[in-house]
Structures are given as structure tokens and as C-alpha cells.
Design brief:
Length: 199
């Protein structure tokens, strides 16, 4: 359960927004005590290092390079400026675990880990949006092991299950727009060669 943020210059447990007061909660997985920016997704706050985001993502780097406009009503949480994003807390939190906390979804030391398909879809979508090539490449590489181009490898479900698991048809359906988004047609299921028409 996440804990409630008490902003240093805000009413306790609330962040000032036009026309409303919204209760904000600290992420219980990505809240770095020495972080210098708070990224707010929905009502969940992630305290991270601006330099880390700028180093890894050209999108965040461009955002942080914009000149600051003085605003006496600007939000802050525990003395840190607040950056609002439109992503879900689950999606941005999963990305920040990799960028800011060194999370490895694929291996524990030398042990291969099975990744939930929903996590891979989320990481690919977020890494593409924020232009984080290494995270995108790693996630696509793992997904390609689950979705091989070779038909015989595709039909070997036990081998594919070593890399990825899915418990929802919705996860699988998300792959189609993902293949288009990343221009990776190899993610689509292989097709059998068409039978020759007898003459």
C-alpha cells in the first residue's frame, strides 16, 4: 500500500490543481530520498533523479532543457518540482524500476526469468514513447524469443514458455498494434506456406 505524500509547501496529502485538490500517493517502489524531481502519473508520485532520466531518454532531456517559467503557483512535493505525465502509474513505474532502480526483468544473476507478457508490452510502449533504445531493444529481443518467425519454433509452446507467460488474450492482442508501433512485423505470427493449387 502506498503512503500519502505530505508536500513541504502543500496542504498535507494534497497537491494543488486548478479547481480541485487531489490526494497524491508516493510510489512504494520508486521513491528515491535524494531524488530531485517528482514525476506524477495519475495520483501516484515517483521521486527520481532528473539527470538519470535526461541521460537515458532524449524525450526527458528535451523536456528538461525547456526554459523554466516562474510560477508562484507551481506545484512541488517535498521540495521537488513536479512533472505531470499522461501514462498510467503501472506503466511509468515499470519503466522507472529499470531506469532508476536497476531492475532486470530477464535474469536473476545467471538464471533466466520468465516475464509476464503484459510487462513486456508496457516496457516496449514506454521505451518507444520516451526514446530509450536499450530498454526497447532488450524488451523486443525477449518478445521475439516468445514469438519466433520460424513456424516449428512457434509451435513449440514449452520452449516459448521459458521466456514469457501470458494469462490473458488481451495481452496477446496488444502485440498487433505494438508490431506496427515499433515497425517490427516479425512479432506477428508466422503463416504456413500456401498450398500449391493442383493443375
Amino acid at each position: 500500500m502506498s503512503s500519502v505524500v505530505a508536500g513541504s509547501s502543500l496542504n498535507p496529502a494534497c497537491v494543488r490543481r486548478p479547481g480541485a485538490l487531489t490526494e497524491v500517493h508516493k510510489s512504494n517502489t520508486v521513491w528515491l530520498p535524494d531524488g530531485n524531481i517528482v514525476v506524477l502519473a495519475g495520483n501516484v508520485a515517483f521521486r527520481v533523479h532528473k539527470s538519470t532520466l535526461a541521460l537515458r531518454s532524449s524525450v526527458f532531456r528535451d523536456i528538461f532543457s525547456l526554459p523554466a517559467v516562474p510560477d508562484p503557483l507551481a506545484e512541488d512535493i517535498e521540495g521537488c518540482p513536479v512533472l505531470h505525465v499522461s501514462d498510467s502509474p503501472e506503466d511509468i513505474g515499470r519503466l522507472f524500476k529499470v531506469l532508476c532502480c536497476g531492475k532486470n526483468y530477464y535474469y536473476r544473476q545467471d538464471e533466466l526469468l520468465v516475464v509476464w507478457l503484459g510487462s513486456l508490452v508496457s516496457l516496449i510502449r514506454m521505451a518507444h514513447k520516451y526514446d530509450i533504445k536499450d530498454v526497447l531493444d532488450d524488451a523486443l529481443s525477449r518478445l521475439k524469443k516468445y514469438l519466433p518467425k520460424d513456424l516449428s519454433a512457434w509451435q513449440d509452446s514449452s520452449a516459448r514458455a521459458r521466456y514469457v507467460f501470458s494469462n490473458s488474450i488481451r495481452d496477446v492482442m496488444d502485440i498487433i498494434p505494438l508490431a506496427r508501433l515499433t515497425n517490427t512485423p516479425s512479432l506477428l505470427p508466422p503463416c504456413r506456406e500456401p498450398l500449391e493449387t493442383p493443375h
